[in-house]
What we know:
heterodimer, A: 119 residues, alpha+beta, Alpha-Beta Plaits, four-stranded antiparallel sheet, two-stranded antiparallel ribbon, 2 helices, 6 strands, globular, B: 412 residues, mainly alpha, Rna Polymerase Sigma Factor, Chain: A, 4 domains, 20 helices, disordered N terminus
Amino acid sequence: xxxxxxxxxxxxxxxxxxxxxxxxxxxxxxxxxxxxxxxxxxxxxxxxxxxxxxxxxxxxxxxxxxxxxxxxxxxxxxxxxxxxxxxxxxxxxxxxxxxxxxxxxxxxxxxxxxxxxxx
Amino acid sequence: xxxxxxxxxxxxxxxxxxxxxxxxxxxxxxxxxxxxxxxxxxxxxxxxxxxxxxxxxxxxxxxxxxxxxxxxxxxxxxxxxxxxxxxxxxxxxxxxxxxxxxxxxxxxxxxxxxxxxxxxxxxxxxxxxxxxxxxxxxxxxxxxxxxxxxxxxxxxxxxxxxxxxxxxxxxxxxxxxxxxxxxxxxxxxxxxxxxxxxxxxxxxxxxxxxxxxxxxxxxxxxxxxxxxxxxxxxxxxxxxxxxxxxxxxxxxxxxxxxxxxxxxxxxxxxxxxxxxxxxxxxxxxxxxxxxxxxxxxxxxxxxxxxxxxxxxxxxxxxxxxxxxxxxxxxxxxxxxxxxxxxxxxxxxxxxxxxxxxxxxxxxxxxxxxxxxxxxxxxxxxxxxxxxxxxxxxxxxxxxxxxxxxxxxxxxx
Lengths: 119, 412
């Protein structure tokens, strides 16, 4: 089993191309069903949705001291909107879940393996 | 047959390894679950064979010898390393029924390890470029240096590319298995495309080792392993029929000879017969796909003793079908050329001018030829120049600068 991060990347401006209320409700419902299936299939480890990047704060070491600044860490148009951590037998298993997520929310999903979780 | 010491050279050992190592490598990857371990082991077996075979002769079953020798060396080496011992204990668990990779196993076609390997190499999570390189390296048994040469990159660049690809396969766990029936259409496409790309790379370049022969070998392996897939047979038929004309594609001076001007007596009759037989077999299954249709077009050409006797209506009908399954501008261009043979250059030119293929040199070469036939010489010259400017090989550039087909006709 390998652990995979399925990350949902949003692009500012075109983020969440306007969905109708009905589409939104449908998408939510699909995600709910999907998450249930992930859980009952033993694939789900964790998932979460993030507030917009403007809510981020960065701490870093500077001259031996911790300095706190307004975030985000990288100013970019693309940002992490949410993620799933799942367990799967192999990449095809992970891609299967990722395909269902992108099908529900119509935003590209990046699939990346975790290091050191192979067992 | 045990070849005696007389005349067995390193090059010959290398040739046998290239033929046999794909199968051994694939078996060892299954056993050890690790491409690098398998590659190193086959490399060691090669070093031993270089020392031993010229003296003792080639063993009766070279493939089995390579697999056994490589496997034993891998086990010895892994025992010496602690991480290796861990791997070995996993191997013992994973290896079903204690399958001995040294013994040639009687397995169904779908169980062949090379089939698993090609689907790993051609996984859609890898870029096309990497798919081709991995397939040539792992299944084709080419050295990294040979793969690098066929891509016109340095050996160091290719080595880095292969290392990255193998890291991704391992880290992301790209599976080592034959896709299930419902996945097969999606997964077969890149695998066939890779073989086709390898063949075409061989056609345009003068690469050594010969990539055309390599591609046909891969297509034969696929066709033997997946006898129920008409497109796999279609690809093999297409390559064999294209190959039948390869020798007559170039003139004595290395220049390009178009289909219409080729000496048809030089076409390879044995390859045509084989290609057409395979094609007839797969067309009977009535699941036409892009490779079968292209093979069928080539088969019609092969049937014609002269250009004039070509069954152009049949070819246009096949292009119509091809355009339906593969609606690309390149297919549309070739269809327009065939229509030109039936309805004249003006009709063809109107079709060609609708296409957006400005960076594709055959587009300009085709326009040039049609314009010339319409007597629009100044425009024809400009189109030849544009084609020559973007043609990939010297032979083609030279051919186009000379005004393509026109100048050759005048020379006669």
